[in-house]
Amino acid sequence: MPGKTSKSQDPDQPAEAPHYHGHRERLRERFYGAGPDALSDYELLEMALFPALPRRDTKPLAKALLKKFGSFAEVIHAPETRLREVDGIGDASITQLKLMAAAASRVAKGEIKRSVALSSWNDVIGYCRTGMAFADREQFRILFLDKRNQLISDEVQQTGTVDHTPVYPREVIKRALELSATALILVHNHPTMVCSITLNHAI
Q1: How is residue 79 annotated by DSSP?
Q2: pLDDT at residue 95, as a whole number
Q3: Does residue 133 sit in the same domain as residue 191?
Q4: Is 49 a domain residue?
Q5: Which structural domain, as residue segments, surrounds residue 130?
């Protein structure tokens, strides 16, 4: 959970701030009228921060976040400590961003589970990138598959440091037998290398 700050020091709620009702309404109209693709990354991030910052112009903050982290995905998956380095970010903003990151991960998992099979490595990489590419610690993750290559379970087996995570083959095999998996995809990320993911397939 994000750390608590006193009300007087909370950057999410400045003491005095004008309303931006007109600008927000125009963004909402474009979002619903023309669709999400009609909005830039910073505009989508603006809208995502509306609930956390009801009395504040979110455009400068959205642009500052994108400048620091590079993309919408990197913003929502950024570690809390680094988010707090951005002037204007407080508990409510961090909660909102982390909620979006969790939602994106759930959606990705749901799409894979509804699909007939993991049909290509690009599909697998896209799925894994959503959940772990921006993690600040190395993870060893396992995708357990059935005989039709459908996803049975996606589990983080170990979490390590920024450049190392232990792997225990006995635990991997034990879990595969428990789930009656016929194939495994072993995944680990490289936090020191931007968005780098390594995949290995085992039968």
Answers
A1: -
A2: 95
A3: yes
A4: yes
A5: 120-202
